[in-house]
Amino acid sequence: MHRKKAEKRIFSLGYKCVAGIDEVGRGPLAGPVVSACVALDPGHVFKDKELKKIRDSKLLAEKTRERIYDLLMNEEIDIGIGFCPEKMIDKVNIFQASFLSMQAALENMLVEPDYVFIDGKFRLPDCPIRQEAVIGGDNKIFVIAAAGIIAKVTRDRLMRKWHEHFPQYGFDRHKGYGTRLHEEMIKLHGPSPIHRKSFSPVSNWSRL
Fold this sequence. Notes:
The chain is of the alpha/beta class. It has one domain (about 5-165): Ribonuclease H-like superfamily/Ribonuclease H (Nucleotidyltransferase, domain 5). About 40% of the residues lie in helices and about 15% in strands. It contains 8 helices and 5 strands. It has helices at about 5-10, 60-75, 85-90, 95-105, 140-165, 170-175, 180-190, 200-205; strands at about 20-25, 35-40, 80-85, 115-120, 130-135. The chain has a 5-stranded mixed sheet. Helix 2 (about 60-75) crosses helix 5 and helix 3 packs across helix 4. The longest helix is centred in the last third of the chain and has 24 residues, at about 140-165.
């Protein structure tokens, strides 16, 4: 990954607050979509060298993600987190739900960024902030990768909490994704309140 190369390019154009947005949780059968927005200013210097390990969250071990998450949350940087719950996903579809969670993350920032990198090929609709959509951005843009780690750890922790309410589904193990165990438990017990009823095979086994 180029260390903040993209951010430096934008700062050189006169922008003062550059952010990255990433989301996790499009594919699972249960739980919300979670997005995070991480912003930097030109003069920020990270206090911990461990943050040099920031890259696509999928390439990091769980313990490394957790450690980087905690370090980021202790930095003097602006972080916003947004959620779109399963009921809204069923109502509007997963594509629109992802936009809603990203917009919520942006709105939960303390200071509005003046330039935003977004992971993927789509920009946020009806957003007045200058945006740049980057395919594979979590492998290319530092602030997107940081946002992806925040979103991933936030969602994983949330799913572990849901496991305490619905232990029969094994949310602590698969985090809501469609593993064989998960599908077998849905078939056996029926969907829980946090399952996405519009998603197959949940829709096939719904007892509602």
